[in-house]
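Ticket #4471: complex job returned nothing on first submit. Input attached below:
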Amino acid sequence: MNFDFTDDQRAIKRTAHDFLEARYPSDTVRALAADDRGFTDEQWRELSELGWTGLVVPEADGGLGLGAVELVVIQEELGYALAPTPFFSSVAATLLLVAAGTDSQRERWLGPLAGGEARATIALWDEHAGWSPDHSEVEAANGTLTATKIAVPEAATADVLIVAAADGRHYLVDAGGPGVRIEPERSLDPTRKLFKVVLSQADAEPLALEPARIAHAYHTIVTALAAENVGVAQRAMEMAVSYAKDRKQFDRPIGAYQAVSHRCAQMLLEVEGARSLSYWAGWALDHEPGAAARAASMAKAYASDAGFRVTASALQVHGGIGFTWEHDLHFFLKRAKSNAHAFGDARWHRDRVAELAGV
Amino acid sequence: MDLTLSPNELAFRDQLRAWLAANDPGREPAGDEAAFAFRRDWQRRLHAGGWAGVSWPTEYGGRGATLIEQAIYNEEVVRAKAPQAANVLGLAMGGPTVIAHGSEEQRRRYLPPILSADEIWCQGFSEPDSGSDLASVKTRASRHGDEWVVTGQKVWTTFAHHAKWCMLVARTDADAPKHKGLTYFLMDMEQDAVQIRPLVQITGEAEFNELFIEEARIPNENIIGGEGNGWAVAITTLMHERATLAFGLQVSVQIALGQLIEKARSTRANGRVASEDPVVRQRLAQLLIEAEVLRLNAYRGLTAIMRQGVPGPEGSLGKWHWSDVNQSLTELAMEIAGPHAMLDEDEWTYRFLRARANSIEGGTTEILKNIVAERVLGLPRMR
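Support reply: We reran it on our side without changes. The output follows.
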């Protein structure tokens, strides 16, 4: 019984932390947030060279074949750095391809995705979707899809789209193919670009119908997103604590007032809770698959709430300066809130938890 | 990271489970005296089976269990719904304090009767004017030759009327700074100078007592850890016990939550069962998640202690978080009960009322937040 990372996992964490800290200072994050594309080829190349793009791809398909815990480690650091990058969306789509790609799809895409020569993304949400990420009314006809998908991350720079359709089916669509229109949307979180994808009789190849494997991929995706929110919340908490030590009002640091210090203590409670759940979910995905669905939904539900609550609380500690564009905090709040709604919100995942517990 | 038990740990757990299954003591009888006799008998069986003081060194009659085995023990006895041992304070606090700070002579004198439940222990820390600010205690002890004369008042003293020994923190130097002038004594409760009055709480029962101490006598050799060192002696024990106690607390929450889910599934409300109500489902799910956090943080806390010798940040959060969760759980039970919440007809009424103390006993939530803010986050002290 041991809740520690292995030496290898610790090394990955340290490397990720140092690399991201060096590459994504505040000025860079702000510049990328203001930029339409949102990342540079050089940044993507460096990240691929670290092996991250191949992390979840099996060795036989040209990747590193590492586990969900390693993905959790990197995602937490990406959240901490608030690095704008198509890494997460591409990994998410890659996970689905690994889970249910046909032999020819795997052969065509997994090598380039692992090496960073190609990028993928997931088109999940129907235009008039509710909050259930597993509900779509899109149907294929004659090997083509006609549909509008919203909030598709990093679609303009993706080579291939994995499109979710009715009854748990998924299709692979060439992002540059005929009948595919990709339009930028204004996103709550400017550090992750979102697009509307309009498909008009676009060629669509089905992925294999592998519900259990696809479900496992989604559990990995939401766990990774929960871990990202842990990093986001950790950073916002550190900003709040640091500000509470420095900022003086009525001749004392505001952190000496319990109204402020107890707020910070509450942040720690929620950050550590989200961290425990996302690490455990990562571990369960790799070692205890029977518990993975429950663990992943628990992590996503808790980290969705905690991410927003901690960043919002950090903003309150900062007072007026926290509400300005000039301060970085709003980028963290927007990322946390956006993540809270991606791939199922807290409410949806709590419903899953209730169901899995036989309530 | 590995959340499974090693073969040795599994063997320990299975051995304990088998013993608990073979030694089911039945239901605890009603009434203070009968319940106490039942718990004393239970502890004697634990002791005979080698299951009292599992974490204590074998040379003092313990089992020499590892931290993880202690955690397993705390989990399993709660899971088996085993009764509390009669001498819970002696086992959880008194004994470890004597082991850590007592002399060899004191260890030989006090430890065996704690394990056998021949001598019951109680705790004399809190006073009417010293709750959260424990170091401000006013109970005075002054030295007269080889003994100390003690006068003062203590409160929230569990099992005082059954106890032989009281872990008493008293002021021995009124001129020293408040944390420095305290001494930790073992006071013999069997003397007329110590009067006990039961303190009836909001549940109607009297788990606790007030102690009125009027010139009680304590021999000098009953000091633990040296004169003027009482604060350190009191604190180290409290800190040490929290990490493994968290395992018992989280399991009791898991059990209560299982019962609450059963209640939600069997309570008809507004034309359907309560568990079909979306709001009830959401709140039950949130409790399931929070209970999982309690479990995982307990494991993380243990890992941190094994690695660094001290609890990590999550260690300071456990008791506070547990009280939040247990209170929410009992509040939801009342909500599910609907109009039956107005009637005292099952154990949930008691649990709901008893849970109000969770955020006060053993350190108020406000004090725990101060500790987290100051010692974990490094925020400035408010004083």
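Chain B has a mean pLDDT of 92. Closing as resolved unless it happens again.
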